[in-house]
Write a structure and sequence with these properties.
Two copies of one chain form a homodimer. Chain A is of the alpha+beta class and 424 residues long. In chain A, 15% of the residues lie in helices and 27% in strands. Chain A has eight helices and 26 strands. In chain A, strand 23 and strand 24 (387-388) form a beta hairpin. At the A-B interface, strand 7, strand 9, strand 10 and helix 6 of A face strand 7, strand 9, strand 10 and helix 6 of B. Chains A, B: InterPro entries: Fumarylacetoacetase, Fumarylacetoacetase-like_C, Fumarylacetoacetase_C_sf, Fumarylacetoacetase_N, Fumarylacetoacetase_N_sf.
């Protein structure tokens, strides 16, 4: 079924060493070529591939597809078709671009309609997201935050090991990599103040997360089991859940994060399918206590994905501030989706479910400035000598992620956003 | 501008005494007539009016409208046109159905295409909702809940009087009046248990709320002021924010309500415009302390709307369990919207923002069973002699709302949903 994953396959399109996008990846995204229409596409090396042109020119014949399924502004209609179709399309693309197949390779006219240098296309938000949920599934992150705010004894809330804690976020302000954000303005209450104050957030932070994108689920009232969950998951992206710690701290009791989060979240533009990540399955951390039956999973239900965060000050070079891994998460994506729907909550194609900050056991694995600077107690020194406790205006935050073994590297590219000054 | 509000106007369509829908209301909704296409419509008395037919037959000539704006499954495109267009359409409808205007009245063929008895159409969800936010703006409700769970001294959180506390909810599970719900299943931790348990919620509740629907806002990063806010609000509906108190209690710390809420929320099908509610403007309760400048409003910025909740057991009659009023809310809708966007969060046409449970000062004003039964300490006796602490399987919960003065009654109709047994 997963012939697209054959590690020995090479493409006639050039793939630079250590590219995130060998022919074994074949992620899906939406892009706007210069002087052309928005299209759904995929990517090999540094070449963007127009799937609507590939489809119209007959290269996908044999797969049952709606005529305009790739001539869309979002992946939603394609996602609705379901995993068997995603697989057929990915396998077919792998055949078309296999180095042993010279049909398209030798057709200059078709190549001009289908292939674009990646630097000549504009990547767009890949999905229309009706609902976005953020989980809180890293035990190391929950412990760090708990210790900072409640002390070591009460660090983890009583429910934390029994269910994947989550909350609803704002869909409208999810943006694609490359879009800048403004420092948010709002109401805060400094520790030494009697009354709240108004102004730009002083404690702007990133959160290193990943998000998965679902397809259409079941009817309202019905649940998706952990065994079924992966059939409802299209793929994953890098997710920077921007946070204003001072706004969040004042507002979040008792109903949770709101304006401290909903000013922006940034995602990477290429959705990597679970199929492409198949060689990188690993087991989740052992769960003790054993969760209730509806949350139990067996075997390798998560993925070994290296994650990095960099800060690039204005007119300077980038510095790595964090190195983490998706596999550290205590709750896996099947558990998250089963929990989300256990009460009958329905899901739709394009819904986004993010992991929560992904921290690991060591200090360099911490996935937010809140943890790296330990609530501002320490200073992080960047490679250019400048110091940070949180994020400054002019800083660009870059997150990258990839899976890698001896045979292949399957990457997510990057999510990057620059922080502009507040609009007052 | 608001000639549609002329209280002396009468319609040639019959309007029963105490109807919520006199010619001064003219709400907007979406309905499916028998053997016809889904259309946007309005309502006078018990007659549903097909606006796409009215438009196609030339009755709206003179208003600049996209050709298919009423031939839609949702109001979103119409909402996007903005308040000046909403007003023109409402004023024009008022003229067409004025008792002094016999053009349509005398055209039997056109009347057959445009008018439907309300019982022969199926009301549909009026808007596509990308993002749904729930506020917590009733001081009486926040106090009641606070006293129950934290005691009188700490009832209101320190932030409560400084900002309209809110959180994001789930859009996908918002349903229209008439759709039934299943009792949600999930994880709870009974007070006397050492470990959490799995099963149907035992503490299913309604929350008496209202929701407002927005039009497109500003760019990400820009805010809407309290003075501008009403220009971005299309209208209001009744909102039943179903809640499973036992699921909520176990899950909600520290990130807020999730599965205790997102299994369903029910709304009334007719969106009543702010214009129609104009005669019922009142001042909000005095705010002490004075909020920060970005939250300040002057004059009559809320509305006098009588609200009622009824429980109808299976095969029995309905009993009123609560009588409240929208005017009790401490934070008005302009403050809610200004707060929501102060950090640059963007809004779209069709977004739903609900009030939170609307309780008032007296016991009969409490807007949830949690408060009416004081967390199960008291029993509510219904008219048929049956007793309730929370909602039983087979119960239908009905909410109604209306504004009324000596001249006119502008109502919201009702939102009604029946509770079916859990799917195990």
């Amino acid at each position: 079924m997963l012939t697209a994953n054959d590690p020995s396959r090479k493409s006639w399109l050039s793939v630079p060493q250590d590219s995130d996008f060998p022919i074994q990846n074949l992620p899906f995204g939406v892009f706007l070529p210069e002087d052309d229409f928005t299209t759904i596409g995929t990517r090999i090396g540094n070449t963007a591939i127009d799937l609507s042109a590939l489809h119209q020119l007959g290269y996908l014949d044999g797969i049952v597809l709606p005529e305009d399924v790739f001539l869309q502004d979002t992946l939603n209609d394609f996602i609705t078709l379901g995993r068997p179709v995603w697989r057929q399309v990915r396998n077919k693309i792998a055949e078309i671009f296999d180095e042993k197949n010279d049909i398209l390779k030798n057709n200059t006219e078709h190549r001009e309609q289908i292939l674009f240098p990646i630097e000549e296309v504009q990547m767009l938000l890949p999905v229309f997201i009706q609902d976005y949920t953020d989980f809180y599934s890293s035990m190391e992150h929950a412990m760090n935050v708990g210790i900072m705010f409640r002390g070591k004894e009460n660090a983890l809330m009583p429910n934390w090991k029994h269910l994947p804690v989550g909350y609803h976020g704002r869909s409208s302000s999810i943006i694609v990599s490359g879009e800048d954000i403004h420092r948010p303005v709002g109401q805060m209450k400094p520790a030494d103040a009697d009354e709240p104050v108004f102004g730009p957030s002083k404690l702007l932070d990133f959160e290193l997360e990943m998000g998965f994108i679902t397809t259409d689920g079941k009817h309202l009232g019905e649940r998706i089991t952990t065994d079924e969950a992966e059939d409802y998951i299209f793929g994953m992206v890098l997710f920077n859940d921007w946070s204003a710690r001072d706004i969040q701290a004042w507002e979040y009791v008792p109903l949770g994060p709101f304006l401290g989060k909903n000013f922006a979240s940034s995602i990477s533009p290429w959705v990597v399918t679970l199929d492409a990540m198949e060689p990188f399955r690993v087991e989740s951390p052992k769960q003790d206590p054993t969760p209730l039956p509806y949350l139990q999973t067996e075997g390798k239900r998560t993925f070994d994905i290296n994650l990095q965060t960099f800060i690039q000050p204005e007119n300077s070079t980038e510095s790595k501030v964090c190195e983490s891994n998706f596999k550290y998460l205590y709750w896996n994506i099947s558990q998250q989706l089963a929990h989300h729907t256990v009460n009958g909550c329905n899901i739709n194609a394009g819904d986004m479910m993010a992991s929560g900050t992904i921290s690991g056991p060591e200090k360099e694995n911490f996935g937010s400035m809140l943890e790296l600077s330990w609530r501002g107690a320490h200073t992080i020194t960047l490679d250019d000598g400048s110091e940070r406790k949180f994020i400054n205006d002019g800083d660009t935050v870059i997150m990258r992620g990839y899976c890698k073994n001896d045979d292949v590297r399957i990457g997510f590219g990057e999510v990057t956003s620059k922080v502009l000054p507040a609009i007052l």
